[in-house]
């Protein structure tokens, strides 16, 4: 049986933990709303660009002269896994789910005899991946100095990827991030980003003859890196919203658990206090009777 | 009798309204877009879009970088990576 002082100490420590989780929950709720708005605002650009890419891609045939970003390097030996994580924890299984998905794919690829490399975005997940694949981490992208991922970060990541691609460091790149469904569910998602998968034509051809300036191929070549950036940007935004959602849910649970623990400990504390008083009274009465 | 003009960046929809004409600095020369323009796609060099609200009025300039213009049945859509101001 814990002493009264010990119990009091434990209650206080659980209380201060609860304060932290409650604060983090409220912060996450506020940030979630902002992140969702940002993800929403990014949609028009992404969908327009995808439409344009689709209509362009349907017009040209992929050949050896096509841009490498679209046609690929001609081999698929080296796979780069781009894993987008957050920098902060306190978000439940958010980061570990993404890492788990990436590691599963890595094992499958290795079983198929491919070489696997990693490109890590964000601080979390570095340790796990480095432990599993100590020599496979090609590059790490630091996002600790930015508060919210923006287009500038997506641009820098895309540029680094394109540079590595042009140096022939890898043949295929997959992106791992978390898709935001709602505050309760976030789905770890895998997406091939290089070579750029031709988006499927969703709009029916209007029949009108579209003029291009310069020609289709040049426009496509100019748009490919932009499309890549947009996809990365979209993934970063989804990831941010997912992180806040996961964090909110995890912290809500933590706050509730802390509350339950405090109640249980308080009951235990009161019982021990009463027991101590009763024992004391019995001693006094027994002492008085003996006289 | 108005051209529907949309300016979109990755972060947000900057502009969506009906204007008279927009002069776009295309990579192969400037071109003006009025209502009823034929379907057209072009890359844009970094520079200023000139937006004419009314015929003969003063143009409003919007500086953009990394742009792409698409003219379709729904009007002119400019996709730009960065927009100043």
- The poorly predicted ranges of chain A are none
Structural class of chain B: mainly beta
Largest interface: A-B, 30 and 23 residues
Kindly state the percentage of residues in helix of chain B.
under 10%
Q: Write down the Rg of chain B.
A: 11 Å
Can you tag this structure with a few keywords?
heterodimer, A: 291 residues, alpha/beta, Helix Hairpins, Pyruvate Kinase, Chain: A, domain 1, 2 domains, 5-stranded mixed β-sheet, 7 helices, B: 85 residues, mainly beta, ATP Synthase, domain 1, 8-stranded mixed β-sheet, 8 strands
Short description:
Chain A is an alpha/beta fold. Chain A has helices at 4-41, 43-59, 68-71, 94-111, 126-132, 151-166, 216-290; strands at residues 78-84, 115-121, 137-141, 172-180, 186-194, 211-213. In chain B, a hairpin with a 2-residue loop joins β3 (21-26) and β4.
What can you see in these coordinates?
The complex is a heterodimer of chains A (291) and B (85). By secondary structure, chain A is α/β, with parallel strands linked by helices. Chain A folds into 2 domains: 4-20 and 252-290, ATP synthase, gamma subunit, helix hairpin domain (Helix Hairpins, Orthogonal Bundle), CATH 1.10.287.80; 28-249, Pyruvate Kinase, Chain: A, domain 1. Chain A has 7 helices and 6 strands. A 5-stranded mixed sheet of chain A has the order 3-2-1-4-5, with helices on both faces. The radius of gyration of chain A is 28 Å and the shape is elongated. With 85 residues, chain B is mainly β. Chain B has one domain: ATP Synthase, domain 1 (Sandwich). Helix content of chain B is 0%, strand content 68%. Chain B is built from no helices and 8 strands. Chain B has strands spanning 3-8, 13-19, 21-26, 29-33, 40-44, 47-52, 60-72, 75-84. In chain B, a hairpin with a 2-residue loop joins strand 3 (21-26) and strand 4 (29-33). Chain B starts with a strand and ends with a strand. At the A-B interface, helix 2, helix 6, strand 6 and helix 7 of A face strand 5, strand 7 and strand 8 of B.
